[in-house]
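Lecture 7 notes: from sequence to structure.

We start with a single chain of 105 residues. Read the sequence below before looking at the structure.
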Amino acid sequence: MAKVELKLLRTWSSRFSLRIVWALQLKGLEYDTVFEDLSDKSPLLLQLNPAFKKVPVLLHNGNPISESLVILEYIDEIWKHNPLLPDHPYDRARARFWAKFGDDK
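Now the structure, written as tokens:
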């Protein structure tokens, strides 16, 4: 089996980045962390997220994924074990509602 490359570009204080850290840990996935200074953004961050130029960005085998909720969905679709959302569609909808509610506040 080929080695999976996972790299997370983040800041230490971003709640959006911490969502990804928690998801990766819940899935038991090994990853490298690249801490970003948002007052002096790295060329790597600007290359991987040219649209928004912000963290978090998950780099999976060379493919960048941006935006925390998109990253969470991606992680859950790729690694099926330890699901991040409940089984029942209504419960999943409620979890997504509260995640979006938190984002919008």
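The longest helix spans residues 89-104. Keep this in mind for problem set 3.
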